[in-house]
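Students often ask why we bother encoding 3D structure as a string. The short answer is that it lets us treat folding as translation between two languages. Here is a chain of 85 residues written in the first language.
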Amino acid sequence: MQVADVEGEIRRFLVSRFPLAASNGFQDDDALLGSVVDSSGVIELVEFLQDRFAIAIADEDITMENLDSVKLAAAFVKRKTSATA
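And here it is in the second language, the structure alphabet:
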């Protein structure tokens, strides 16, 4: 799966679950945490990523560097899926 495909799936999930994502017209490199996704939303995002992409996300992986934008989350998913391949 290409990074662009992963980005698209993450974006669709966010728009479907978080009203601010749908109404703000955020871009793939815009910050998610605190502006689109709150702390409970982070849990939903992590669960989605684990279920959809069959990856395990450890507590220490839940950082702004990994999940604070669609692009960062997609790159994180790619790294995790490459590591298990």
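Translate back mentally: Residues 3-84 form a domain with the Non-ribosomal Peptide Synthetase Peptidyl Carrier Protein; Chain A fold (CATH 1.10.1200.10). Keep this in mind for the problem set.
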